Every structure is written in C-alpha cells, then in structure tokens.
Protein: Sugar ABC transporter substrate-binding protein
Organism: Actinoallomurus iriomotensis
Amino acid sequence: MYTTKVLGVAAALALGLAACSSGNSGGGGGSTGDVKGKTISFVPGVSGDSFYITMQCGIQAEAAKNGMKVDMQAPQQFDASLQTPIVNAVVAKKPAGILIAPTDAKAMVPPLLQAKQAGIKIGLVDTTLSKDGIASSSVSTDNVAAGASAADALAKLIGQQGKVLVIAFKAGASTSDDRQHGFEQEIKKYSGIKYLGAQVNDNSPAKAASIISATLSANPDLKGVFATNQFAAEGAATGLRNAGKQGAVKTVGFDAGPVQMQQLKRGDVQALVAQQPYQIGTQAVDQLVASLTGKKPNPKIGTTTTTITQDDLSKPAGGQAAYKTSC
C-alpha cells in the first residue's frame, strides 16, 4: 500500500525481535550465521497505517528467525519530502539493510542511491523506484493484477452494464498508477461498460467527494466507482450519500484495514481488494538476507490479492484478509 495518511495512530511503532503471533511466514529465512545481530531499518510509506503495521509484523517475525534486529521510522504523511530526511538519518546509523516503501518513484532515488553507495543493501516493499539497480529486490502486490481484479468485481456488481469511474489516490505513486492501469486494461473486456476515466483525489476524502458530485452532475447514470485507497473510498461514499446514490452506484475499494472493513460492513463499498502485507514483509526479509549472505535474491516478487464482499465478513475469508493493528 501504500497508500494512506496517518489515522491517529502513534507516529513511531517500537519494533523488537519477538515474532508476531499469527500469519504465514512466507519463507524459510537465510543464513543466520552471516546476519545474526545485524540491523534492518524499515521505512514504510506512512506512520500508523494498518497495511504497513501488518507488513511490519511480517518483517519482525522473519528477522527474528534470522537473529536480526529491526528498527522502524515512518513519515507522518505519504510524502517524499518527509521520507527523505528519515532515510538520511537511517543511512547515518549504517544498518546492514533498508526495507523501504518509496513515497515517490523519482524523488526517492537520490537518497536511496546515497544509501547504496554507503554499502547498505536496499530492498523495496509495496512501491518502487523509477531507476533500476539501486535495490537488490522488490516485493509488492501485483497492483496491475489487483486493478484488474477490481474491474472484474465492479463489472459483476453492475451487471456488466453502465458508466464507471476510477478515483486514483496519488499521481506518481507506483501503486496508484498500476492499480489504475490494471483496471483500465481489464474493463475494456466488458463491451457494455463505458469507462469515464480516472481522476486524482490526492489522498483527500473531500476532493474525492467533489469528484463524485461533479461526475454525477455530468453523468447522472453513473453505475460504478473504483476507489484505489481508503480515502478515495471514504470520499466517494460521502459524495454518493450526499447525492442520494449510495448503494445505487456500486463502489469497489482497496485494502482491508479496520477502516476499510467498516466501510464494507456499512455498505459504503460493496467489495474490497485486499493485499497480503504480512507475506510482503516476510519475503522482503528473505530476499534481503539472501543479498547479505552472497546469494542471488529474486529481483522482483509480486504477491496476490483477495476480493471480499459483505458476505465474506462472517466467513474465514474475511478474517484472513483483515489487516493487523499491532503485532
């Protein structure tokens, strides 16, 4: 994800060596003799987001298997100007490796290039960089495939007929762009659906609500919306509620944190595309350990998503998809 601003959770989450109590480790660890006692610095996209907290749990658990320490620092907003000084501070501490979700594919290249030049191994999680060769590995959701899954889910909800809109949360963020592109490619398969294009809400629920209001004024027969993160979904729900269209216009949201699950329960969205952040975390550690121990890491790993509806909330699928708020 990632993708969201802080939602009133603490700015920094203390990480220890204890493993999280649940979740699939996703890998067998590396050579503990070579990495034991070394430190991994985790720099997520934003503080307090359940997607990154769940990823943190995976990182912490897999690092403990390898006898490694983990520390974490996160920006208060998903913003490269806030993440860059954190990376600079981390580099000064000289950890063995950094796992980071770059908040901007271009702007985060210089500080991470500096980290690499300082001899620190770099692993990307969730988001990517515009420049190859800086990171030894990249583990993230296959967001193009996730966008396609959202298109299929929305098409099913509206009976494969009508006008649909995408609300993208941030232009230039690889996750947002890829979800949009995946949706756009897949929705072409449905001849009865007219795609109205994508508009960017810049992580602002108010802006997303305004987008919905303007779209309904021009297209009162709007049938569906793909909201690419929780703030887009929150604003879409507000816009539809204000127009008396909630439920009549179907919405597919993204992620399965507490806020998103409440959105699904209330009917603000009719489906969610859930990622697997815990597995991203464990696999990212495995690839970093491989890099640190002279093995060849997998340069790119794409994890899958699960689409859930209200019917899944009382089933195991719903519980398994839900993100953690603590480890």
Summary: The chain has eleven helices and twelve strands. The longest strand covers residues 193-200. Confidence is low (pLDDT under 50) at residues 2-31.
